[in-house]
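hi!! sorry for the late reply, been swamped w classes. u asked for the two structures so here they r. pasted raw, havent cleaned anything up. first the sequence of the first protein and right below it the tokens
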Amino acid sequence: VQLQASGGGLVQAGGSLRLSCAASGSIFSIDVMGWYRQAPGKQRELVATITSSGTTNYVDSVKGRFTISRDNAKRTMYLQMNSLKPEDTAVYFCNAVVATTISVKGYWGQGTQVTVSS
């Protein structure tokens, strides 16, 4: 199982970016998926999660600005980030709880850099 994150980049404050996370491999089903971020010198923090049925949850600092979504048929998760702030600068990682024929466990993507300039 592999998770491939993409869509990061450099954007000015107030701008937007859309991250994607595509899952591939011998997957039976995908349960909860989520985005995390880690800024330099800080611990990795949860940004948003989405269940297989579409229930979402956000950290307070991104509520109203970020939207998490997923396309189950494409096994892909998205994070639409609007009104970006310099404090959103971080490496963003995707995570998914994946069931295969032999196990159920969490997987991480490789991370994509988001840099917001002031």
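now the second protein. again sequence first, tokens right under
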Amino acid sequence: QVQLVESGGGLVQPGGSLRLSCAASRNIFSFVVMGWYRQAPGKQRELVARITSSGTTIYADSVKGRFTISKNNAKNTVYLQMNSLKPEDTAVYYCNSDPPMRYGIDSWGQGTQVTVSS
């Protein structure tokens, strides 16, 4: 079993930045495709960024050029650097495998709330 713990969210003004972290209970990032997802109120959870075991990244059009996903295999941590934040980025952010629930991950973490508001 692998547990994931997200952190780093908060309240930020439009145009601001945040860095999210996702820590895993054991080393999986060296062979797992990981993703950052978000879920806004009343909307379905969506994948916003993914990173392969070799470090190749893909982004949703809505965040391309503003968000950067990265990882540190030695620290069992995946990051999401979010710049130029917009109110529509407001959501609870989660990490998981892509597709979700693979490689010993059997649940979603608690997520971290990101609120973009003036």
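hope this helps!! also noticed smth abt the second:
The chain has a mean pLDDT of 95.
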